[in-house]
Amino acid sequence: MSVKKIIPCLDVHGGRVVKGIHFVDFKDVGDPALCAMEYERQGADELVFLDISATVEDRHTIVDVVRKTVEKISVPLTVGGGIRTIDDFRELFEAGAAKVSVNTAAVRRPELIREAAEAFGSDRVVLAIDAQSSGTDSETGEEKYNVFVSGGLEDTGLDMASWARRGAELGAGSILPTSIDRDGMKSGFDIGMLNAVCSVVNIPVIASGGGGDLASFVEVFQKTNVEAALAASIFHFGELTVGEIKDELRSHGIQVL
Predict the structure, then answer these.
(1) Among 87, 155, 161, 216, which one is least packed by beta carbons within 10 Å?
(2) Is 11 a catalytic residue?
């Protein structure tokens, strides 16, 4: 079994870390740099920084906040939100981001994934996919998931698994699927959704959406092939620490750093 990672996610709006439910009803959590420093202290393997309103507000990611955050931490930081062009990738890498995640712009113009992978390397390009259940396939009986963009507001009609496969083929180095249905609910990761992605790609998959208690983290690593689990609410509101989750995973024979 590969070494698994725990990744706190910092959703940023107006320069502050926030957290909502189903991508709405946001509550202020704190300063991005201070939150990042605390999660690194707890043992986070990586951090994800998402400017959740950049795409909807048609503006670029808040690069200065990224730069100030990176100056305070040593763990790798993935940044997403409002990424539209190769220049956006370059600007964030110059600000200190280790990886850049792209979502809406990749759906609008998939070749952006290939261009970024060729320019900066696949390992630095993350394809983020916001997905929601679209019901059960009448022929296979399996749950189907549609891809949403623009902060979860627009249903593209794209099949999530098919889009994940194409993203990998275009050069994405990892896939970050987030369950809109589970976002902020702390009811457990969507195992079926994650397995649908893992079954069609051979690159790292990061579970997102629904992490709530220790059992949910054990379950996601025991029942799927994800490389990492990402969460926000449980960390932001002090319900669990990264260290507590890692201790629980170790007790179940799951390898972590």
Answers:
(1) 87
(2) yes
Q: Which of 20-34, 170-184, 199-213 has the lowest mean pLDDT?
A: 20-34
Q: Which one from 45, 51, 130, 183 is the annotated catalytic residue?
A: 130
pTM for this entry: 0.92
**Strand-strand pairing, 206-208 and 228-231:** parallel
Task: Tell me if residue 130 is catalytic.
Answer: yes
Catalytic residue, from 11, 45, 51, 88: name it.
11
Domains of the chain: 5-251 (3.20.20.70)
State the pLDDT confidence band at 23, using cuts at 50, 70 and 90: very low
The answer, yes or no, to whether residue 156 has pLDDT greater than 80, is yes
Residue indicated by tokens 């970050």? 176
Length of the chain: 257
C-alpha torsion sign, points 83, 187, 47, 175? negative
* 110 three-class SS: coil
